[in-house]
Design a protein that fits this description.
CATH architecture of the largest domain: Up-down Bundle
Mean pLDDT: 73
Largest sheet: 2 strands, antiparallel
Radius of gyration: 26 Å
Number of helices: 14
CATH class of the largest domain: Mainly Alpha
CATH topology of the largest domain: Rhopdopsin 7-helix transmembrane proteins
Shape: elongated
Order of helices and strands: HHHHHHHHHEEHHHHH
Number of strands: 2
Strand order of the largest sheet: 1-2
Structural class: mainly alpha
Number of domains: 2
Length: 376
């Protein structure tokens, strides 16, 4: 009896045996056989019971709740971004950086389709799925992977567009433009690889079709690593410019806060990398893929929130003028013409401190400007 228990323990703990069993099922059984009312499906459920693997578990509700909460926060931040532009009286100045984030939020529709389909198997263990559910789940993962790659690039491009509009330094703008080109090129290449990574393409979600796929783990690690590098570059780009600015400590604190929030997306990307191990050869994809999918959702929507912070700062200045030093520019730091960002106002103020005076009128974000030499 002890020997039987040891053997059973070894059987349950043996990943090699599980991989061999999975390979045998893939080679000799169709997806219908593996999940239908046939011996392979029964054998999987019996082995799960013998190995005391939990039955009836589901991550579907948690995945749905997480997606709704994070997505709602991202939508609120993007909405506040547009509201800020409207309150400033610059509705016509809604630019590409705004529309890019709007598009990123719009691209999240497949994620909600994912959540709805979660009720039909995603988030459950493989051996508890019904016939046809695994194919639908893998098909959704295929679409979600491509959408994720595109969504991840859009907030980066929005921030880079904001950089170009905000800081007039030509050398800085050239560096930003090169970074934008690299983001677009890398996103195009990786998304293309994700689309045609399997030949034929349907073999990704239909295991009955014999085909060849790229190393999914390698592609996933490549996407994650490249995203981290791009985030670090984007965070580092304005640092030399900011170091040369003489800012009050409150303004420095707000800038550091925005950088800290931006750095959080890097932390999430690193945490997501840890969940990639075994992504391509998972024996329980309907259960295991919920972890990396959840991290991916956090990564994308935190990036959207981060990209919205610089614009929303103006709204905070209006709502809390006494708490935000930027709502009360000192006499040495005069503002530039309407529509020019805080970064550019700081540079203009250094060169021509008598250009204009900034003050809030009755409409909240209205500005009155004097002309050089008029004493206003």
């Amino acid at each position: 009896m002890p020997g039987l228990l040891v053997s059973m323990s070894s059987f349950c703990a043996s990943r090699l045996l599980a991989q061999s069993t999975s390979a045998c099922l893939n080679a000799n059984c169709t997806m219908h056989d593996g999940l239908g009312k046939f011996p392979p499906s029964v054998a999987i459920k019996v082995s799960a019971s013998l190995c005391r693997k939990p039955l009836g578990q589901s991550r579907s509700d948690l995945f749905l709740a997480t997606t709704i909460v994070v997505y709602s926060v991202a939508v609120i931040f993007v909405a506040l971004r547009f509201i800020t532009k409207a309150m400033k009286g610059t509705k016509g100045r809604v630019d590409w950086s705004d529309w890019l984030l709007f598009f990123a939020v719009f691209c999240a529709i497949p994620n909600f389709y994912f959540c709805v389909k979660g009720k039909n198997g995603f988030g459950k263990h493989f051996w508890e799925l019904q016939d046809g559910q695994l194919k639908e789940i893998l098909k959704m993962i295929y679409v979600a992977e491509v959408v994720y790659i595109i969504q991840l690039a859009i907030p980066k491009l929005s921030i880079l567009v904001f950089y170009i509009q905000s800081i007039p330094n030509e050398g800085f703008r050239l560096a930003v433009f090169i970074t934008m080109c690299l983001v677009v090129i890398s996103t195009t290449i990786i998304s293309t690889l994700a689309v045609v990574g399997c030949h034929p393409i349907p073999s990704f979600w239909d295991r009955d079709i014999k085909g060849h796929c790229l190393d999914i783990n390698g592609v996933a690690y490549g996407i994650g690593g490249l995203s981290i590098v791009q985030d670090l570059v984007i965070i580092a780009l304005p640092i030399p410019i900011l170091k040369n600015m003489r800012l009050p400590w409150r303004e420095k604190a707000m800038v550091l806060f925005m950088f800290a929030v931006g750095s959080s997306s890097v932390v999430i990307s690193i945490l997501r990398l840890q969940s990639i191990a075994g992504f391509g050869d998972s024996l329980d994809p309907s259960w295991d893929y919920t972890v990396i999918t959840t991290w991916s959702i956090f990564e994308v929507y935190i990036a959207i929130i981060t990209a919205s912070l610089p614009t929303i700062r103006h709204l905070l200045v209006y709502l809390f003028p006494r708490s935000c030093a930027m709502a009360r520019p000192n006499r040495e730091a005069r503002s530039a013409p309407t529509g020019v960002s805080w970064f550019r106002r700081r540079q203009v103020a250094t060169k021509a401190p008598q250009i204009s005076t900034l003050k809030f009128s009755t409409n909240g974000f209205g500005r009155e400007y004097g002309r050089p030499g008029n004493g206003v």
